[in-house]
Amino acid sequence: MSLNIFFEKEKVTLNSIFKNYKFKKNFIINDVKPLLKSKKNDLTFLDTVKYKSEAAKTQAGACITTEKLSVYLPKNTEAIIVSNVLLELAKSLKIIYPNADIDYPDLNLKIVKKDNFSKVKFGNNVLIGKNVKIGKNSIVGSNTILESNVQIGSDCTINSGVIIKNTIIGNNVVIQDNCKIGQKGFGFIPIKGKNIKFPHIGKVIISDNVEIASGCTIDRGSIDDTTIGDNTYIDNQVHIAHNVKIGSNCMIAGQVGFAGSSQIGNNVSIGGQAGISGHLNIGNNVKIGGGSGVVKNIQDNQIIMGYPAVPLKDFLKKKV
Amino acid sequence: MSLNIFFEKEKVTLNSIFKNYKFKKNFIINDVKPLLKSKKNDLTFLDTVKYKSEAAKTQAGACITTEKLSVYLPKNTEAIIVSNVLLELAKSLKIIYPNADIDYPDLNLKIVKKDNFSKVKFGNNVLIGKNVKIGKNSIVGSNTILESNVQIGSDCTINSGVIIKNTIIGNNVVIQDNCKIGQKGFGFIPIKGKNIKFPHIGKVIISDNVEIASGCTIDRGSIDDTTIGDNTYIDNQVHIAHNVKIGSNCMIAGQVGFAGSSQIGNNVSIGGQAGISGHLNIGNNVKIGGGSGVVKNIQDNQIIMGYPAVPLKDFLKKKV
Amino acid sequence: MSLNIFFEKEKVTLNSIFKNYKFKKNFIINDVKPLLKSKKNDLTFLDTVKYKSEAAKTQAGACITTEKLSVYLPKNTEAIIVSNVLLELAKSLKIIYPNADIDYPDLNLKIVKKDNFSKVKFGNNVLIGKNVKIGKNSIVGSNTILESNVQIGSDCTINSGVIIKNTIIGNNVVIQDNCKIGQKGFGFIPIKGKNIKFPHIGKVIISDNVEIASGCTIDRGSIDDTTIGDNTYIDNQVHIAHNVKIGSNCMIAGQVGFAGSSQIGNNVSIGGQAGISGHLNIGNNVKIGGGSGVVKNIQDNQIIMGYPAVPLKDFLKKKV
């Protein structure tokens, strides 16, 4: 069972959250997860018909959804009927994970003691939280902060002024100066006067051989994780929002931005300053020209450019 | 009287700056302010006919302007006729506020003593200047710098690696890692070989319930202030230039950029990587699509997109 | 002879790198340089016909190139014929400069002792590497890192949280908070599973009177240097890639991005969020509108705008 290692979790039952609701089978909520990752003691959610096929396959014990969407759920998943799915989900998350809606900075950091990490080299004033793991032959630069429970593999080079939280990093990864990884994403329920912050209980997972250049920001996932695949290289000042999944062997040039929850295939190259809208699927071997604005799903092997991005041939035609 | 709390001010008279000029009534300059905020002992400026109606209402004691524009000033405001208004203004400011043209880093910082701030929690190595105020139940993360006279309200979460100067922050504000707030804006008189830096004597004012994500830069105002309204949420790597005024309940997505002196209404949402040119008025309830380049004023309730941005209907028509 | 002051260099002969190759005249490699900067004991490279005229004038002792391109080399330059020039160049560089392919953070930093720098003022926790030089009347803000051998002129203001490595800075330069200067650029030979990182042995050279605002990233050169000319002003969050050369008296607004190896003339102004593609020549006195995407060389005195950028007249025509 993969427990959430980064956030304190309260032991609460379905009934203690949804007090007016009569459950056939009350249970202590193990975790809150996406439809396909949920097990029988997990709570999930369904807020759009787009995910009806995932809904049909969920093993979740309970699912926050609307009356209309509840028909897509299997018999073993109890539907919790609400009018605003994301609002009720946010409220539930705040009860189960009370510290995940704001990036409360880790107040239990200590200047690293080199004895605790044999075969790891450190610069000055490296601040480390509880239970941080760092593999052999890794190097951590000065003024870098690794908050509690962060895991870093072997042969990694983490530069100076980097801040990492809620993140698991593989082997042979390079992270250049001043990157900020694992902070809460831009998620909230807009309410005039006082928005409700959406708790982010996901993490960032960075695979082996990844290189991330200076000044990038990578937000952790909200319910799911933000992931970066093997051997993907990311240039300076790239912004990667919550839940984005980038495949292997990708090349992402400077100042590219990814909105939340998009999925990028393998071997994708993206030119500088391009923007990828939220909730898109970009296939494998796609090439996206610099400055493009991608607003639709893109099939495998396409070469696209423009704002909004179109096949390169069409872009060139239009501009001549 | 609202004194400028952030910059050392010299006591100088009009005549000591403008030596060749015969004033009807010389006075010690209290402050340099925009037309409508000036009182009788303040110096103001008028460099474009665009502000003629503000000029008519000014209560300033004196105004740097051109011969042509001087006709718009009321009788009680003495016109100081020059050929280059901004150049003379910059020179005057440098005399009155000798330390505002460069971000001289605060050299009187000390590692915070927790005793001095009861009910505030601090990470490691928090550096604090003189006379900093922080309200109760606020948290400040490690390696963060709060320069002298900065004010932070209660229930705020200021994360790690943040640098704040010349700024006043309300209650319940969240600022994520590595934000840089209150530095001098991009203002200077271009001269080949050695530009003249325009002193920035304004500040940044951030209202209650604002959330600012990682890696944002918010420049302080030049003469006026840079302001961010209540409950406005700003995503990662957003750039906000000097004098920009953003209203309440706005949603600003990642990597958006605001050029100087633009005014944004309330309930405005702006998609990722959009750019707002300088000196524009964007109305209330405006929605601006991701990647847009806004170069004109926008009325209330418009939905716009494109580069340059046009009403969404026109944008979609053109692209099909 | 201008030795490379920033990277440890191994003493190796041509033959020890290219073992299967029979040289007329073997020699210890002094340095690896661009075609026109190489002398008789230097190794250079030619990977495109675009540089055939530079190739004809090179004084390099040896040149990695293809059979086809080798005809452009002078008699005194020995051609090392390979199929993939950049791959063999990267491998050679890794042998000669074993520490230049990753930004290994400087692990020999110390908190600055003010005695060592008379007439320089420091904030708290300034970390300095070996052999750093700082001119008189300069100021360095808190938490800033100056890695070994960095040179800073007199009357400079380096703000807080700045990280500088592999860089030479002139006099009267201002660098605002959190800039990251001199890190490795985004260069590698893409190989699925494990890219080969291209060693960056160049530096960053910043001339007198330059101002660089908060959060900028300036990568060092790969073989050549990244340079910024006199009195050029750069706004927040600008990204300057490896080998870019920016002239004097330029104005670069916020969030502009430069891809690698482009050359920008003097007196060029670039609006916010514009992007300049790689390997371009932008002339003198060029004005580039905000949000533009420049993909072609631009002659002197042009005013351009759009994506892709075209002369302003054409841009306005198209949009009306």
Please provide a written account of the structure:
The structure is a homotrimer of 320-residue chains. The first copy, chain A, is mainly β and 320 residues long. The first copy, chain A, has two domains: 14-96, Udp-n-acetylmuramoylalanyl-d-glutamate--2,6- Diaminopimelate Ligase, Chain: A, domain 1, CATH 3.40.1390; 110-319, Hexapeptide repeat proteins (UDP N-Acetylglucosamine Acyltransferase, domain 1, 3 Solenoid), CATH 2.160.10.10. Helices cover 9% and strands 27% of the residues of chain A. Chain A has four helices and 35 strands. Chain A has helices spanning 14-17, 52-57, 85-96, 312-319, and strands at residues 31-32, 42-45, 62-65, 78-81, 110-111, 121-122, 127-128, 133-134, 139-140, 145-146, 151-152, 157-158, 163-164, 167-169, 174-175, 180-183, 188-189, 196-197, 204-206, 211-212, 217-219, 226-228, 233-234, 239-240, 245-246, 251-252, 257-258, 263-264, 269-270, 275-276, 281-282, 287-288, 293-294, 303-306, 309-311. In chain A, the strands form five sheets. In chain A, strands 6-9-12-15-20-23-26-29-32-34-35 form an eleven-stranded mixed β-sheet. In chain A, strands 5-7-10-13-16-21-24-27-30-33 form a ten-stranded mixed β-sheet, with no helix packed on it. An eight-stranded parallel β-sheet of chain A has the order 8-11-14-19-22-25-28-31, with no helix packed on it. In chain A, a hairpin with a 2-residue loop joins strand 34 and strand 35 (309-311). Chain A is globular and about 55 Å long. Chains in contact: A-B, A-C, B-C. Chain B binds chain C through residues 102-107, 109-111, 125, 127, 143, 145, 161, 163, 178, 180, 183-184, 186, 188, 190, 192-195, 197, 215, 217, 219, 237, 239, 241, 255, 257, 259, 273, 275, 277, 293, 295, 307-308, and chain C through 121-125, 139-143, 157, 159-161, 174, 176-178, 209, 211, 213-215, 230-231, 233, 235-237, 248-249, 251, 253-255, 267, 272-273, 290-291, 306-307, 319.
